[in-house]
What does this fold into?
Amino acid sequence: MTKQTHSFQAEVAQLLHLVTHSLYSNQEIFLRELVSNASDACDKLRFEAINDGGLYENDPELKVQVTFDKDAKTLTITDNGIGMSTQEAIDHLGTIAKSGTKDFVSKLSGDQKADSQLIGQFGVGFYSGFIVADKITVESRRAGMQASEGVRWISGGSGDFEVESIERATRGTSVILHLRDDALEYASAWKLKSIIGKYSDHISLPIQMEKEEWKEGENDQPGSMVKTGEWETVNKANAIWSRPKKDVTTEEYDAFYQHISHDYAAPLAHTHNRVEGSTEYTQLLYIPSKAPHDLWNRDKKGGLKLYVKRVFIMDDAEALLPTYLRFVKGVVDSADLPLNVSRELLQESRDVKAIREGCTKRVLSMLEDLASNNETNEGKFTTFYGEFGAVLKEGLGEDHTNKERLLKLVRFASTSSDTVNVSLADYKARMKEGQEAIYYITADTLAAAKNSPQLEVFKKKGIEVLLMTDRVDEWALNFVQEFDGTPLQSVAKGAVDLGKLQDESEKKAAEEAAETFKPLLAKLKEALKDKAEDVRITTRLVDSPACLVSQDHGMSTQLARMLKQAGQPAPDTKPVLEVNAEHALVKKLEGSVHFHDLAHILFDQALLAEGGLPEDPAAYVKRVNALLA
It folds into this structure.
């Protein structure tokens, strides 16, 4: 193929401009990213060679080599991994199909240090080379292809790149960085070794550099370091999870987490265990401190890295953890699974089921430890819950086995605390004498929950109510009927039953009001027959004229709204309208010439108060304006 020029995908061009002009605060990140890419390429070759040993091409020792040339101002990272074909070079280096560049750009804050930490998280690690280089040359050949099928890719990080065919005797990839004058410090063995030791010491294959020795100068010339032509391994080159825990430092654990997650922040916690028994495996699992940008992307694959006898098998092994723990990062190395394990086998294997259960228990134990020591470990559980609490709640409906453990971990705001730090155990310990249920309300926002008219009687009596505002809450609570023997009860469903907390005089007054207002209730029910299932006197309102409630076992109006917004079918259920017989507006209804309009305004205002919208907003406005006039 003759030399061809291609234009970058528009988002790549925008990204390259940002990388080359803005993200300088932590330059050394580029080497971590490029060495990680080289390591991944070797892992991929090792996996493909399980079924095709010929891909090794008489060069079975996988490695990464880092070289530099001060005179030419170049730094080269070479691997003998899987390599790339011409089309793969165009696809992988010229476009960012799956890395979420738009999200990357939207996350930029203007803080250079914070922005530079986003690079790896968005799958754009290769482009970080432009932080120190004004041109990058990539030479590669895919394993199994002919020497004449090599490819050279060149770009100056502007709007286009060149691709041409070359002869390349060895498989793998060389990334050649043409260093800018202000980045020549990276053409130094000492500097490169220190960065590799900091970020890549744990990589499980050798990272090699040429040895140097001191040579005395001649004729009064100063001495200098010269390369000997021999290679030395500059990292420990053994899998961190295979080492005894006592021999691994916290810094090494954190560095490995940053390698596999491309996250610059340290994890909140980790667990490292060798499990023996009917199924043998090693697990090294991490709880991140910050949610990734794509946590809620349903198409994003998540999971652990799976190794079998230290041979890399796959990224994102989803079968090793339940979906609600998709934020967990880490490695599982099994001694029992076959080397040619497939995703289909992962779904069916008994050993995988045992690993999944074991990993789930370990993660929950880590979270329980963070929760119990939250005050002494700088609020780590509070940090975790702020980032991942809504995801954790998915487990209430997905993981029946561990539901009780999860119920002890979930947290909510309440009428006693705006902060999301109230556990069900905390609530139960504060229940009033005679209280027989844990009361809660679901809403779209904390403000809507706090100001809901359905809370009025509870505020009057000083009864705490949990405020649930995550979208997952309404769904998750369908699977939770009680906590530690105490039933959970929505204040927005069915008639309010405060049990021993309600005075006999209050019950009697409500019964009398229902009897007195019977004709009015019948008239309201007729006027609102297309909107309300029933109309009744309330026992829950103090200051508001009306509110909407769902039937005891019916779907709430909020859940029905959420389903419709998501394009999902929702049953056509009608709410119950409860009216406050003591409110002046309700008293004015009887005999009013505007009865029909007032009835509909009452219903629509109750709907607005809980975060909904009138079915016909224009008609609502017209009625209100007519009455105001």
In short: The radius of gyration is 32 Å.
